[in-house]
Protein backbone atom coordinates (compact mmCIF):
# COMPACT_ATOMS: atom_id res chain seq x y z
CA UNK A 1 0.00 0.00 0.00
CA UNK A 2 1.21 3.51 -0.80
CA UNK A 3 1.34 6.21 1.77
CA UNK A 4 -0.85 9.06 0.57
CA UNK A 5 -2.75 10.31 3.61
CA UNK A 6 -5.71 12.66 4.01
CA UNK A 7 -6.95 14.10 7.30
CA UNK A 8 -10.59 15.22 7.30
CA UNK A 9 -11.27 17.64 10.15
CA UNK A 10 -7.60 18.65 10.49
CA UNK A 11 -8.31 21.95 12.30
CA UNK A 12 -10.18 20.30 15.23
CA UNK A 13 -8.64 19.04 18.49
CA UNK A 14 -8.36 15.44 17.22
CA UNK A 15 -7.20 16.58 13.77
CA UNK A 16 -4.36 18.53 15.37
CA UNK A 17 -3.50 15.51 17.52
CA UNK A 18 -3.33 13.35 14.36
CA UNK A 19 -0.53 15.65 13.17
CA UNK A 20 1.31 15.51 16.54
CA UNK A 21 1.21 11.71 16.59
CA UNK A 22 2.20 11.31 12.90
CA UNK A 23 5.29 13.43 13.66
CA UNK A 24 6.10 11.74 16.99
CA UNK A 25 5.71 8.18 15.70
CA UNK A 26 7.39 8.98 12.36
CA UNK A 27 4.35 7.56 10.58
CA UNK A 28 5.49 7.12 6.96
CA UNK A 29 3.74 9.17 4.28
CA UNK A 30 4.60 10.34 0.78
CA UNK A 31 1.92 13.02 0.67
CA UNK A 32 -0.49 14.56 3.15
CA UNK A 33 -3.74 16.32 2.35
CA UNK A 34 -5.33 18.54 5.00
CA UNK A 35 -9.12 18.82 4.74
CA UNK A 36 -11.71 20.74 6.74
CA UNK A 37 -15.00 22.60 6.33
CA UNK A 38 -15.27 25.58 3.97
CA UNK A 39 -14.82 27.84 7.05
CA UNK A 40 -11.21 26.64 7.47
CA UNK A 41 -10.34 26.24 3.77
CA UNK A 42 -7.31 28.32 2.81
CA UNK A 43 -5.84 28.26 6.32
CA UNK A 44 -2.07 27.56 6.40
CA UNK A 45 -0.67 24.87 8.72
CA UNK A 46 3.07 24.40 9.35
CA UNK A 47 3.89 20.71 9.71
CA UNK A 48 7.26 18.95 9.74
CA UNK A 49 9.02 21.83 8.01
CA UNK A 50 6.45 22.31 5.28
CA UNK A 51 3.49 24.67 4.84
CA UNK A 52 0.18 23.04 3.96
CA UNK A 53 -2.98 24.78 2.80
CA UNK A 54 -6.21 23.41 4.24
CA UNK A 55 -8.62 22.40 1.47
CA UNK A 56 -12.39 22.15 1.68
CA UNK A 57 -13.62 18.61 2.33
CA UNK A 58 -15.66 17.50 -0.70
CA UNK A 59 -16.53 14.23 -2.42
CA UNK A 60 -13.66 14.90 -4.84
CA UNK A 61 -11.00 15.23 -2.13
CA UNK A 62 -9.75 11.64 -2.19
CA UNK A 63 -8.25 10.88 -5.61
CA UNK A 64 -4.98 9.00 -5.07
CA UNK A 65 -5.44 8.81 -1.29
CA UNK A 66 -4.58 5.51 0.45
CA UNK A 67 -5.65 6.24 4.03
CA UNK A 68 -8.21 8.87 5.08
CA UNK A 69 -8.31 9.74 8.77
CA UNK A 70 -11.72 11.22 9.56
CA UNK A 71 -12.52 13.32 12.61
CA UNK A 72 -15.03 15.78 11.19
CA UNK A 73 -18.22 14.59 12.95
CA UNK A 74 -20.72 11.85 12.17
CA UNK A 75 -22.69 13.81 9.56
CA UNK A 76 -19.60 14.56 7.48
CA UNK A 77 -18.38 10.98 7.84
CA UNK A 78 -21.67 9.65 6.48
CA UNK A 79 -21.57 12.21 3.68
CA UNK A 80 -17.93 11.89 2.56
CA UNK A 81 -16.53 8.51 3.73
CA UNK A 82 -18.31 6.53 0.94
CA UNK A 83 -16.74 8.89 -1.63
CA UNK A 84 -13.30 8.28 -0.11
CA UNK A 85 -13.82 4.50 -0.27
CA UNK A 86 -15.04 4.77 -3.86
CA UNK A 87 -11.83 6.67 -4.72
CA UNK A 88 -9.80 3.74 -3.33
CA UNK A 89 -8.95 4.99 0.17
CA UNK A 90 -9.34 3.09 3.44
CA UNK A 91 -11.24 5.32 5.87
CA UNK A 92 -10.45 5.22 9.59
CA UNK A 93 -13.41 7.07 11.07
CA UNK A 94 -13.41 8.64 14.51
CA UNK A 95 -17.16 9.41 14.63
CA UNK A 96 -20.03 7.18 15.75
CA UNK A 97 -21.40 6.99 12.17
CA UNK A 98 -20.31 3.43 11.35
CA UNK A 99 -19.34 1.87 14.70
CA UNK A 100 -22.31 -0.45 15.04
CA UNK A 101 -22.53 -1.31 11.33
CA UNK A 102 -22.02 -5.11 11.21
CA UNK A 103 -19.99 -4.68 7.99
CA UNK A 104 -17.51 -2.28 9.66
CA UNK A 105 -14.76 -3.47 12.02
CA UNK A 106 -14.69 -1.57 15.34
CA UNK A 107 -11.10 -1.76 16.52
CA UNK A 108 -8.94 -1.22 19.59
CA UNK A 109 -5.58 -2.59 18.35
CA UNK A 110 -4.62 -3.97 21.79
CA UNK A 111 -7.85 -6.00 21.78
CA UNK A 112 -8.95 -7.03 18.27
CA UNK A 113 -6.34 -5.96 15.70
CA UNK A 114 -7.22 -9.07 13.65
CA UNK A 115 -10.61 -7.47 12.82
CA UNK A 116 -8.82 -4.83 10.69
CA UNK A 117 -8.34 -7.36 7.88
CA UNK A 118 -12.12 -7.76 7.52
CA UNK A 119 -12.68 -4.14 6.44
CA UNK A 120 -14.62 -3.22 3.31
CA UNK A 121 -13.14 0.25 3.05
CA UNK A 122 -14.13 1.67 6.45
CA UNK A 123 -12.71 0.92 9.91
CA UNK A 124 -14.39 2.56 12.91
CA UNK A 125 -12.57 4.05 15.88
CA UNK A 126 -14.56 3.39 19.08
CA UNK A 127 -15.88 6.02 21.49
CA UNK A 128 -13.10 7.50 23.63
CA UNK A 129 -14.57 6.21 26.92
CA UNK A 130 -14.94 2.73 25.41
CA UNK A 131 -11.28 2.64 24.32
CA UNK A 132 -9.99 3.84 27.71
CA UNK A 133 -12.00 1.12 29.50
CA UNK A 134 -11.23 -1.65 27.01
CA UNK A 135 -7.43 -1.35 27.06
CA UNK A 136 -7.04 -2.48 30.72
CA UNK A 137 -10.21 -4.60 30.96
CA UNK A 138 -9.52 -6.86 27.95
CA UNK A 139 -6.36 -8.59 29.30
CA UNK A 140 -8.22 -9.30 32.55
CA UNK A 141 -11.22 -10.70 30.65
CA UNK A 142 -8.88 -12.98 28.65
CA UNK A 143 -7.37 -14.32 31.87
CA UNK A 144 -10.67 -14.74 33.72
CA UNK A 145 -13.96 -14.08 31.87
CA UNK A 146 -15.84 -11.05 33.18
CA UNK A 147 -19.53 -11.56 33.94
CA UNK A 148 -20.45 -7.98 34.81
CA UNK A 149 -18.84 -4.57 34.36
CA UNK A 150 -20.03 -1.32 36.02
CA UNK A 151 -18.42 1.89 34.74
CA UNK A 152 -18.72 5.48 35.98
CA UNK A 153 -16.92 8.00 33.78
CA UNK A 154 -15.41 11.39 34.59
CA UNK A 155 -15.13 12.89 31.11
CA UNK A 156 -13.03 15.92 30.22
CA UNK A 157 -14.12 18.95 28.19
CA UNK A 158 -11.89 17.68 25.35
CA UNK A 159 -14.53 15.03 24.60
CA UNK A 160 -16.77 17.83 23.31
CA UNK A 161 -13.99 19.27 21.12
CA UNK A 162 -11.69 22.29 21.02
CA UNK A 163 -14.55 24.80 21.27
CA UNK A 164 -15.70 23.19 24.54
CA UNK A 165 -12.18 23.32 25.97
CA UNK A 166 -11.93 27.02 25.10
CA UNK A 167 -15.37 27.70 26.56
CA UNK A 168 -14.53 26.00 29.87
CA UNK A 169 -11.53 28.35 30.25
CA UNK A 170 -13.78 31.32 29.44
CA UNK A 171 -16.38 30.08 31.97
CA UNK A 172 -13.74 29.77 34.70
CA UNK A 173 -12.69 33.39 34.16
CA UNK A 174 -16.34 34.50 34.17
CA UNK A 175 -17.08 32.66 37.44
CA UNK A 176 -13.99 34.13 39.13
CA UNK A 177 -14.91 37.62 37.88
CA UNK A 178 -18.50 37.25 39.10
CA UNK A 179 -19.88 37.52 35.57
CA UNK A 180 -22.70 35.52 33.93
CA UNK A 181 -21.41 32.24 32.49
CA UNK A 182 -21.35 31.66 28.71
CA UNK A 183 -22.90 28.35 27.55
CA UNK A 184 -22.70 28.23 23.75
CA UNK A 185 -20.77 25.03 23.05
CA UNK A 186 -21.31 23.40 26.45
CA UNK A 187 -24.94 22.95 27.41
CA UNK A 188 -24.35 23.90 31.06
CA UNK A 189 -21.71 25.54 33.19
CA UNK A 190 -18.78 23.11 33.41
CA UNK A 191 -16.26 25.32 35.21
CA UNK A 192 -16.46 24.60 38.97
CA UNK A 193 -19.34 22.23 38.21
CA UNK A 194 -20.12 18.86 36.61
CA UNK A 195 -23.12 17.37 34.88
CA UNK A 196 -24.39 14.10 33.46
CA UNK A 197 -23.18 13.64 29.89
CA UNK A 198 -25.66 15.62 27.83
CA UNK A 199 -26.02 13.23 24.88
CA UNK A 200 -29.69 12.40 24.14
CA UNK A 201 -31.52 10.25 26.71
CA UNK A 202 -33.15 7.09 25.37
CA UNK A 203 -36.43 5.46 26.42
CA UNK A 204 -34.52 3.34 28.97
CA UNK A 205 -33.23 6.48 30.76
CA UNK A 206 -29.62 5.94 29.62
CA UNK A 207 -27.91 8.57 27.50
CA UNK A 208 -26.29 7.82 24.15
CA UNK A 209 -22.76 7.92 25.57
CA UNK A 210 -23.62 5.24 28.15
CA UNK A 211 -25.20 2.96 25.55
CA UNK A 212 -22.25 3.46 23.18
CA UNK A 213 -19.95 2.02 25.86
CA UNK A 214 -22.25 -0.98 26.34
CA UNK A 215 -22.81 -1.84 22.66
CA UNK A 216 -19.27 -1.05 21.49
CA UNK A 217 -17.62 -3.16 24.22
CA UNK A 218 -19.91 -6.08 23.33
CA UNK A 219 -18.81 -5.76 19.69
CA UNK A 220 -15.07 -5.24 20.31
CA UNK A 221 -14.86 -8.11 22.82
CA UNK A 222 -17.16 -10.33 20.70
CA UNK A 223 -18.93 -10.98 23.99
CA UNK A 224 -22.61 -9.94 23.81
CA UNK A 225 -23.40 -11.84 27.03
CA UNK A 226 -21.25 -9.62 29.27
CA UNK A 227 -23.50 -7.53 31.55
CA UNK A 228 -22.42 -3.88 31.31
CA UNK A 229 -23.91 -0.72 32.83
CA UNK A 230 -22.54 2.83 32.70
CA UNK A 231 -23.03 6.31 34.10
CA UNK A 232 -21.24 9.03 32.10
CA UNK A 233 -20.45 12.41 33.62
CA UNK A 234 -18.75 15.54 32.21
CA UNK A 235 -16.25 17.04 34.69
CA UNK A 236 -14.28 20.32 34.66
CA UNK A 237 -11.02 18.78 33.41
CA UNK A 238 -9.34 20.00 30.20
CA UNK A 239 -8.32 16.66 28.67
CA UNK A 240 -8.08 13.03 29.86
CA UNK A 241 -11.08 10.98 30.91
CA UNK A 242 -11.10 9.02 34.16
CA UNK A 243 -13.22 5.94 34.82
CA UNK A 244 -14.19 3.98 37.91
CA UNK A 245 -14.56 0.36 36.78
CA UNK A 246 -16.06 -2.45 38.85
CA UNK A 247 -15.61 -5.98 37.51
CA UNK A 248 -17.25 -9.26 38.52
CA UNK A 249 -15.26 -12.26 37.29
CA UNK A 250 -16.21 -15.89 36.69
CA UNK A 251 -13.47 -17.23 39.01
CA UNK A 252 -11.70 -15.82 42.06
CA UNK A 253 -9.02 -13.20 41.32
CA UNK A 254 -6.81 -11.12 43.62
CA UNK A 255 -5.54 -7.54 43.28
CA UNK A 256 -2.03 -9.02 43.04
CA UNK A 257 -3.04 -11.16 40.05
CA UNK A 258 -4.69 -8.15 38.40
CA UNK A 259 -1.53 -6.10 38.94
CA UNK A 260 0.59 -8.88 37.41
CA UNK A 261 -1.64 -9.14 34.33
CA UNK A 262 -1.81 -5.38 33.80
CA UNK A 263 1.93 -5.03 34.41
CA UNK A 264 2.64 -6.66 31.03
CA UNK A 265 -0.52 -5.52 29.19
CA UNK A 266 0.08 -3.37 26.09
CA UNK A 267 -0.96 0.25 26.45
CA UNK A 268 -1.25 0.11 30.27
CA UNK A 269 0.83 1.86 32.94
CA UNK A 270 0.21 1.08 36.62
CA UNK A 271 0.23 3.94 39.13
CA UNK A 272 -0.94 2.40 42.39
CA UNK A 273 0.84 3.79 45.47
CA UNK A 274 -1.40 3.13 48.47
CA UNK A 275 1.16 4.36 51.01
CA UNK A 276 1.18 7.86 49.52
CA UNK A 277 -2.45 7.75 48.34
CA UNK A 278 -1.10 8.38 44.82
CA UNK A 279 -3.21 7.13 41.95
CA UNK A 280 -3.82 8.13 38.30
CA UNK A 281 -4.86 11.72 37.70
CA UNK A 282 -5.65 13.53 34.45
CA UNK A 283 -2.33 15.35 34.78
CA UNK A 284 -0.53 11.97 34.74
CA UNK A 285 -2.15 10.71 31.54
CA UNK A 286 -2.45 13.93 29.51
CA UNK A 287 -0.16 13.80 26.49
CA UNK A 288 0.68 10.13 27.20
CA UNK A 289 -0.15 7.09 25.06
CA UNK A 290 -0.90 4.64 27.88
CA UNK A 291 -4.01 4.26 30.00
CA UNK A 292 -2.98 4.61 33.66
CA UNK A 293 -4.50 2.20 36.18
CA UNK A 294 -4.62 2.36 39.98
CA UNK A 295 -6.87 1.79 43.03
CA UNK A 296 -6.65 -1.93 42.22
CA UNK A 297 -8.60 -3.52 45.06
CA UNK A 298 -10.90 -6.38 45.93
CA UNK A 299 -14.62 -5.66 45.80
CA UNK A 300 -15.52 -7.10 49.18
CA UNK A 301 -19.25 -7.03 48.39
CA UNK A 302 -18.87 -9.83 45.81
CA UNK A 303 -18.43 -13.36 47.26
CA UNK A 304 -15.43 -15.67 46.66
CA UNK A 305 -13.04 -12.82 45.74
CA UNK A 306 -14.58 -12.54 42.27
CA UNK A 307 -14.84 -8.74 42.32
CA UNK A 308 -12.23 -6.06 41.52
CA UNK A 309 -12.35 -2.25 41.46
CA UNK A 310 -10.08 -0.21 39.17
CA UNK A 311 -9.51 3.48 38.53
CA UNK A 312 -8.33 4.40 35.01
CA UNK A 313 -7.11 7.66 33.45
CA UNK A 314 -6.57 7.95 29.68
CA UNK A 315 -5.92 10.90 27.39
CA UNK A 316 -9.18 11.25 25.48
CA UNK A 317 -7.65 13.09 22.50
CA UNK A 318 -4.72 10.66 22.21
CA UNK A 319 -5.57 7.04 23.02
CA UNK A 320 -9.28 7.88 23.11
CA UNK A 321 -9.16 9.16 19.53
CA UNK A 322 -6.13 10.10 17.41
CA UNK A 323 -3.56 7.56 18.64
CA UNK A 324 -6.00 4.64 18.35
CA UNK A 325 -6.70 5.63 14.72
CA UNK A 326 -2.98 5.98 13.88
CA UNK A 327 -2.30 2.57 15.47
CA UNK A 328 -4.96 1.11 13.16
CA UNK A 329 -3.29 2.86 10.20
CA UNK A 330 0.10 1.42 11.23
CA UNK A 331 -1.41 -2.08 11.22
CA UNK A 332 -2.88 -1.42 7.75
CA UNK A 333 0.61 -0.58 6.43
What report would you give on this structure?
The chain has 333 residues and is of the alpha/beta class. The protein folds into two domains: 4-126 and 321-332, NAD(P)-binding Rossmann-like Domain (Rossmann fold, 3-Layer(aba) Sandwich), CATH 3.40.50.720; 130-316, Dihydrodipicolinate Reductase, domain 2, CATH 3.30.360.10. It contains nine helices and 15 strands. The protein has helices at 13-24, 74-86, 109-112, 128-143, 162-176, 208-221, 255-263, 282-285, 318-332; strands at 4-8, 31-36, 44-47, 50-53, 55-56, 67-70, 90-93, 122-124, 146-155, 195-196, 227-234, 241-249, 268-270, 291-298, 307-314. The strands form three sheets. Strands 10-11-9-12-15-14-13 form a seven-stranded mixed beta sheet. Strand 3 (44-47) and strand 4 (50-53) form a beta hairpin. Helix 4 crosses helix 9 (318-332). It is globular and about 60 Å long. It starts with a strand and ends with a helix. The model has no long low-confidence stretch (mean pLDDT 97).
Brief overview:
This protein has 333 residues and is α/β, with parallel strands linked by helices. It contains nine helices and 15 strands.
CATH superfamily heading of the largest domain: Dihydrodipicolinate Reductase, domain 2
- Compressed to H and E, one letter per element, the order equals EHEEEEEHEHEHEHEHEEHEHEEH
Please tell me what the overall shape is: globular
**Number of E-state strands:** 15
Strand content: 15-25%
Count of helix runs: 9
Helix content: 25-40%
N-to-C span = 6 Å
Main pleated-sheet profile? 7 strands, mixed
Q: Spans of 5+ residues with little confidence (pLDDT < 50)? A: none
For this structure, the CATH topology of the largest domain is Dihydrodipicolinate Reductase, domain 2
Radius of gyration: 20 Å
Which structural class do the helices and strands define?
alpha/beta
Order of strands, widest sheet: 10-11-9-12-15-14-13
The assigned CATH architecture of the largest domain is 2-Layer Sandwich
Number of domains: 2
Whole-number average pLDDT? 97
